[in-house]
Amino acid sequence: MAGLRLEGIRPKVLEPVDLELAASELVFVAGPSGSGKSLLLRAVADLDPHEGEAWIDGVPRSAMAAPEWRRRIGLLPADSHWWADRVGEHFPLEIPGVAGKDLDAAGLLSRLGFGPDVLEWSVSRLSTGERQRLAFARLLSIGPEVLLLDEATANLDPGNRDRVETLVQDYRRTRNAAVLWVSHDPEQRRRLDGRCLVIREGRLEPES
Amino acid sequence: MSLIELRTWDLGLAAGLVLLLAIMSWRLHLGVERRVLIAAARSTVQLVLLGLVLKVLFELESLPWIGALALFMLVAAGWEVMARQKRRYRGLWGMGIGTLSMFLSSFSVTLLALLVIIRVEPWYQPQYLIPLLGLMLGNTMNGIAIALDNLTRHAWEGRGRIEARLLLGADWSTAIAEIRRDSLRSGLIPIVNAMGAAGIVSLPGIMTGQILAGSPPMEAAKYQLLIMFLISAGTGLGSVAAVWIGSRRLFDERHRLRLDRLR
User: Fold this and answer.
1) What is the pTM of this model?
2) What are the sequence ranges of the domains in chain A?
């Protein structure tokens, strides 16, 4: 039951953005590179100083501590970064109760095409695509209520791209999570049937 | 055992060796002759001046003047810490973090030594206060400069990793914990190494000086030990303070990594 509302959110290169996503709604954002798509997601996640306010489920961002806000709106950046040697060290030890039965770490990993032994793998031997999928699993394992995806399938082969898309759709429906997805792929936007927005000259508008 | 006074001629002979080094650098195209000569000239002027100032201070024994000299030394050390940073904090923080940490550690440890350990009467007797404080400042300065430089450089390079942790709901302290630990460790390594090697690899400076000045070796060794322990404590305390203030300053109240506060 988590919708997302933005009011006057203003990353550096954009006009103030007002946007409302209902619970379980899927919204795509497109636009040329450098137009500020990633900056918009970073601003919603409160990673850069900016003006504006955001609400999750009607609760304003300013009313909660930043770490809690970031746990609730999960941002998946385009590049994944890893701070420890083994994959498993990046996953929470105990999956929070909100994750539910269908979202235990092992289940998540197998739906993304990994066996449970992936947690023992060394991060340095992961391919770009593996990193991207594991970063997604890492994000879902903390059970965010909203998803902000930045080119979540950019480096994936069609099989793995489908896995990620299916998982996003399931997560959205079972958890009623709103999803804001930056995607360059017009096919993907058509296939998944979400509302499409585009950034033109610093303004976020409906795609015509 | 008594102090053999050096004549100007003796010092001139030693200076001649430095000149020889400069000529060698020039002949071999090492390119450091200018720096060698400038450094030698600087140390000559600075030490002679210090000698003169201390001579006057020792005779005066006036607390305000001693305080002024201590403050001057502190500011100079703070400047030096800032000059050694690749990525400095903008604004007053650039000098403030190092200076404040050195103030907290060097001054408190020096006071402890004067009041409780050596029990000098009066406690600000410059013959003890100034050299002790100088030693403390010089050494904590090294530790703090290394620790702070490590902290800001690694935070700069590790932005992606730090923000990845923030995005998964970590607070700022967790997100930078590893970098902070590594920076502290690197700040403490020089003094730990110096303690380990003392007396085997090198005859430490203070002991050497005291023996040359005619003290019995055991007394010199005790003073050396005292100073080393004080220096380690001061360096540790100072580095912890600098890294804590520095890492806090890298984040704002919304737990954002603010690299724009560096330059």
Assistant:
1) 0.87
2) 4-206
